[in-house]
Amino acid sequence: MALDLDNTLRVIKAKQWALADIDWEAPGAELIEPELHAKLKPFLSDLMWIENVGARGFAAMAKKAPTPTLKSIYEHFHAEEQKHANAELALMRRWGMLDGDEIPSPNVNVQLVINWLDKHADGMSLSFLGTVIPMLEVALDGALIKFITDEVKDPVAQEVFRNINNDESRHLAVDYEVMDILGHAGARKLAADFIGGWVNPSLLIGTLSYLPLLNKMRDNIVAMGVDEQKLYKAIERYRSVGERSKYVRRLPMFQLISRHGGWVVNRNAVPYHLLADGLVKVTEKIPFGLVHKTPTWSTELTYEPVA
Question: How far, in Å, CA of 174 to CA of 159, rounded?
């Protein structure tokens, strides 16, 4: 059954929440064990910036939305992703992880994706953005946020991530509906969009940034003591949910991203992992200052409990 986007927009508007709704001074920050506390700052820093990657993607998608309703939905999603980033920044401040007004930096792999999106996202088609962003949301938000909700006992964090999870569930519902809509296009248009996208050299550069990102996040999850199967289950969800629709299955980019996800979760796919892990090692040697740029969309980052 098709998703009623008009009703979805009404629900999105009705379910809005703000940082000001959270009692950031409530007890519970002391419940985080010292060993976990030491690992959470780089973990949350990356998660915060991944939320901003999603925000930038939705901002670009809003410009390409075929209807006013979908445009408004994407604009709300853009704002929600920024709100998620601010909430995660506020948690870091609550837990004493920030020095004054510090805005932590992402790892090099996240930064490379940020740089690429900041420059090229507006030039990508909806069929490309509409299939890539759901994978990032499922694989990265899904796995990383699930770890936080499972491991962090602070009730304020639980409340924050319950709100974030509720938002993300609506994002994914719309993501799959849009893929279904895109899949109704004729075979010639689908082929033209796919081939036309890949003849753009910037997409190849973006791919070289994207490939090591999932493997790097796998490494980070394992370093936190989390079973990497949680990430793999999230990635597999992208394929399993999408394949329920015959129209989503018609999208060449969905098939490509699903195939890539299969390589990521299959440790027996040795050639792929040699490539991706090799790219992780190469990017680790890049001096951060060489690639660090403050993205144009991050000016609203704040830990303040704004509405």
Answer: 23
